Predict the 3D structure of the following.
Amino acid sequence: MNQNNALSLLLGTVIGGVATYFVIKNQDEISDKISDLKDSIHFDHHELLNSAKGKLDQLTTNLQSMIQRYTHSGETTIEKSDELATIMEELNRLSEEVKALRA
């Protein structure tokens, strides 16, 4: 039983040593690739905020216009419920876009 534990420890040490050797040997390449990834994933927070604000303004404008049409038109109840369904679909779609921007 002790011999199995010693072999496991030795095997783990060898694997860890080999991995450390390759990391040290390829350290420059690894750091270059990490830098490239950081540069490619760079987000402009102001651009994201402006985009989110634009989407919110669009949502607000659409909702206001739809509400005005809903309250000031002579449509039947069926037409109004269809309009409400359209409003809810638009709201859900824009909500998903905002969630995607936050992620």
